[in-house]
Structures are given as C-alpha cells and as structure tokens.
Amino acid sequence: MLLERWGRCSPVSMRPGRARSAAGVSGRSESTNSHLLSLLTATLSNMWSNAVRTGAAQASEAADAVTAELTAMLARFTALATTDSTEPAADGVRIDRIAVLEQIKAAAAAAQHAEMVGFARAQVETHLAQTGAGGLDPAAVGRGIADQIALACRVSPYHGSRRLGVARALDVDLPATAELLAAGRISEHVAELVVSETRHLDNEQRRLVDKQLAEAGLEELSPRGAAALARKHAYEADPAGYLARGRTARADRRVSLRPAPDTMSTLSGLLPVEQGVACFAALRARTDTIVATGDARTRDQIMADTLVERLTGQATATDVNVEVGIVVPLDSLLDPDHGGTAEIVGHGPVPVGIAHDVLTSTAGRRWWRRLFTAPEGGPLIGADPRRRRFDGVLAHLITIRDGGRCRDPFCDAPIRHLDHIRPYRSGGPTSYTNGRGVCARGNHVREMPGWHVEVVADGLGRQPHTVRTTTPTGHTYLSTAGPAP
Ligand SMILES: [Zn+2]
Fold first, then answer.
1. Tens of pLDDT along 288-335?
2. Residue 456 contacts by C-beta under 8 Å, 6 or more apart in sequence?
3. How many whole angstroms from 48 Cα to the centroid of ligand 1?
4. Most buried pick, 76, 86, 235, 459, via CB within 10 A?
5. Are 431 and 387 a contacting pair, CB within 8 Å?
6. Which of 4-13, 39-48, 137-146, 396-405 ranks highest by mean pLDDT?
7. How far is the CA of 113 from the centre of ligand 1 (A)?
8. How far is the CA of 444 from the centre of ligand 1 (A)?
C-alpha cells in the first residue's frame, strides 16, 4: 500500500563543498554533493530505475529432442563451471579447453541466430494468414516477433530487434561470415561488427564484401582490425552510400542516462563529432577559468558541476529545482536508526540515509514528495473505474510503483503510456491495480493476436503488484513491481 504525503522543502542556503551532515549517514565527504546532484539529475532527466523486474518463461509444449539435447549440454557446462578448479589438469590442457569453450560460445550464437530466423519466418507466415483472413492490419505484420525473442533472451525489445536484425543479415547477405561464426572461428562480436559496417549496402554488395572478408582471413583479425577491413571494403563497394550513412547517423543523435554504482549515474550524449568536441572544449575552458580563481574543487568536479549548471540553467549544480519522488519504508520514520532501503523514483534503491540527505541538503526551491510504504490495510487509493484515463495522483502512484520504467519484463524503457492491463473496452477499470506503465512499443505489441496480459497480484497487500504476459507461443512471463516493501 502506498500512502502519499506532501511536503514543501524550505529553501536552505547550501553551497557546493559544504554539505550538511544528515541523520543516518556519517563520514560524508565534499564529493557527496556531486553524488546527490548526479542522483537528482538522474531523476529529473529520465525515468528509469533499478527496480526489480522478474521474468520467468515456461514452455507451453513439451521439450522436443533438440531442446532436450541442448538442456543436457547446458547441465554439462554448469557442472564444468562448478567443478573445483584445483582439480589437476596441465596448463596446456586448460588453454585447450578455454579455446574450445570460446568456439562453443560463437557456435551457440550462430545456432541461436538460425532459430531466430526460422521463428521469424514462421511468425510472418502466420501474420500474413491472419491478414488474409481479415483479422490483422497489414501494417502490423511482423510486429511482436522480436519482442518474443527478447523475452526468451531476457533482453529489452530494442535488443531483441537488434539481435534478430543481425541474425537476418548473416543468414541472407553474409553467408561466409555466418559460416565462420558457426564453426566458432570468429566471435559473435566480430560477426556483429561486420553486420554493422556493411548495413548501408544492398544485398549484392554485401555478399561481395562478405566474400572479400573471408578471403582476407577475417578469423585472423582482431575485432578492431576486422571492423576496419569491413569498413574499407564497404566504402569501396559503395562510396556514395557510405557518405550518406554518415549523414544518416547524425539523425541518431541522442542523450541517454544509465545508472552507475554508489548512487551515481552516467549521462551521455551521442553527438556529431564537431558538436561533441565543442561541448567538451567549452567545459574545459570554463573549468580553466574557475581553477584560476583558486577553487578548492578538483578539475573533474568543476567540469561535472559546470555541465549540470549549463544544462539546467542553475547557478550552482546542487540547487536542483525539481520534484523528486522518494519512497521510504514507514519503519524508518518511526525509528530513525532503522536501516533499510528507500527508493528514488527513476533511479532505484538507495540507503535511507542518502534519501534523507537528498531531502535536506539540496538548496534548490523545489517541491518534493514522500511516499511511504505502509503495512497492508491502509486506505485504498485512486480507484475510479468510471474514468477513462489515468491521471493526477493515480497516474503518479502507478508511475512510482513501476519505478518509472516499462513493466514489460526486461524492457527498462521509460514509461510513455499508462495502460489498462485489462483493456478499458473490455470493462477494465481505471484503477491502481489495473494500470501499468509501458513504453510506446509495449503498448502496441500487446494488441497483436495471441498476446494476453493480466494481473496476478493486485499490489495492495504484502505481495507486490504482479502482471503476467502470455505470448502467442504460450510462454508466460511475470513482471513484479519492485522493490517489494
Ligand atoms: Zn517496454
């Protein structure tokens, strides 16, 4: 049960480098402010978190002979991995084993590619049949295929698409590279580099480059050397396309944020080279000026603070002016010495002491909101089945509960929509239990034939909110809102 309280944090005069000690944390250094600023920047810039996601696949059909064989091989590898490494074996023998295991990793990737391509072809056939029968919009043919692969691989839909793209390219246009991979003579990484470096070529050109690479001894090259050779041949095969690709790449410019250990985060920008260089030069120039004034901070700290100040328009980096959602265990309020973990929405779990620091040491005038995880039996929040859309406090609570991230297992994309788990058109209520945060893609995939999403735990008691997704092959995956109280 989430019980919401509001508070207004009174502005306090704090400057960087003079962090105030707060209850529950000792031995804080000056750098703590930069920890907090990154943490807060993380929260305001994006809505991801480390919230626990669990997913479990269950095969809908009995395992076939190949699956049984693969499962036995898996058990064998597991046994090898847990064998006491002090068991005597000559050093030369160990190197031989290491080499063969490396080949097996590559060959396993190739075998997985073959399964992906076969699965995708069969699914497209099914979709086309459904289109012919009038049951599917032709524009939706192909949708949800990579998503099923992603669930099986326990990766995000984005990476599912990427993997399927690599598998298709190797299968259709790069047979020699695919053959080397299947034989374990090049790594999956090198194969992916060849796919990536040749992606602007048409089928015929790609096959030509593939042949050239194999003849040039691709397997003898380092990953860097392999990529450089692939790039060279790809350029020679289609110089105009290569230049056009450089221009297309500029359309992919973006900013992303990833969690880092110790309540830090990494904010990165994929930028056209001259702009990236200009940004870095501007930060360095400003840093030089500040260092010359005798500032006590290190160059790295000044550059990081300057980055935040320039991006946010704040006078100082720590004055983060933003609403921060913090979920704090109720026990920790009743007992200040209670340990435990709080949750910064959009970032993930942090020690309760750090959460208190965020609330007390930031100088910005900002609204903050505390949410307490309370024992079960509290008041029911936000259930208004007549309303069509999730909004207001209800929307906020669902977003907090889902950690700001898509609830599809392994997805991790920021929430773009609040979705009715049981569709509104089927009588699904607009309630805390029946709502979930999803990315734009997840919202479309669930509409494909054979997909089914349902609530299996309402999240109002001790058990966290849990959603089960069933895919067209009958596999099921669980998504649990986390972390659990
Ligand atoms: Zn998603």
1. 999 989 899 999 999 999 998 888 777 776 666 555 566 665 555 556
2. 466, 467, 468, 478
3. 11
4. 459
5. no
6. 137-146
7. 23
8. 10
